């Protein structure tokens, strides 16, 4: 049968727009449907507005630090939340509009509507029946609340970007990257912040040295850490909220943020009509080519819960379009994907943690901690830098690099290239550092801190 489109993409975020645009460039008849906002989570309620607010929080600290360098201290008594919100929202609107223009320029048909399955090749798109030979599901994720009494009184991560004013007292629930980022944003802009997480340290899944250093940095900024606890109830008060915790303590707040993860956004898509059954958490199971159980239906990005990062989703969308319509079958690798946590100071990492690497065999571990030059003058607490390399003993390949400190993300992008190419510790050693920088520490780590893995017991 003839189809209306060669490819229909459900979701106008990073993965969907890139896949649709590249496929159209290869000559395919493409349509993309987006029911909420073009650009998806990253542009509208994620990476972009969050980074702008991180920048805003940092400027306050920099103004205070400037006095130590001889500049007069002119920090205002209160941060202008409305001015920041207006600038942030204007940039988000600009970027969201670019996504639509990119699709139009490529000849893609855009639908500002919800798309749901009627059968494996047919969709209801805002009340219109549309058929497609191939379909891509790229609907991203949605924030979750904990299932506790009073959860409806709390906010989710998306809500930070619609607040009309800075809460004076905030409780942030969660220990992941969104939680620690929100905690430092709110504290940096002037709020009193409690951070609650159920593990001994925040940032589960990151390297243990980084997790410990992150906890120290958060506490040094004045963020009150509540490890090994979980909220049990939220109650409304005449002038705010009360959060009860599993350790029998209470915290009063003006706002409570659930930063407890995001779930794949698959509810209501009609997947059962397409013959697709999501996993228990809502993620769509796919093979290495991102095919679902229906070979002509694909799923990308956060909806498959593999590596939930915007650049990864974009790369996978591009590779799939090249494979299907560009006569260039290829896959985007999920190995050695660099990532960052934009708390203050930021974290960046690429490759294996020490624990992951040691499970594969003996590794040499190199760690350094120091005060960056800026803060030897400013005397600001909580700004120590930690840098770490994890090296395979047998091959001397650098398996992982981890950093907490200013400019970590900017530095780690280049380190990611080296690790992806299989650089050895000797390659790092022979590289001349740029002095004076923090980055040069990665190429001047000469003294092994410890050995980990199966050889550790013998040495």
Write a brief caption for the model:
The chain has helices at 14-25, 40-45, 47-66, 81-105, 177-188, 208-220, 310-325, 354-358, 373-378, 408-420, 425-430; strands at 5-10, 30-33, 109-111, 115-119, 122-125, 128-137, 141-143, 155-156, 169-173, 192-196, 224-226, 231-237, 240-245, 250-253, 255-258, 262-264, 297-299, 339-341, 347-351, 363-370, 385-392, 398-404, 450-452.
Could you walk me through the main structural features you see in this protein, from its secondary elements to its overall organization?
Helix content is 29%, strand content 24%. With 459 residues, the protein is of the alpha/beta class. It has 3 domains: 5-143 and 263-325, FAD/NAD(P)-binding domain (3-Layer(bba) Sandwich); 151-260, 3-Layer(bba) Sandwich (FAD/NAD(P)-binding domain), CATH 3.50.50.60; 345-458, Enolase-like, domain 1, CATH 3.30.390. The strands form 5 sheets. Strands 1, 2, 3, 4, 5, 6 and 17 form a 7-stranded mixed sheet that branches. A hairpin with a 5-residue loop joins β21 (385-392) and β22 (398-404). The relative contact order is 0.12.
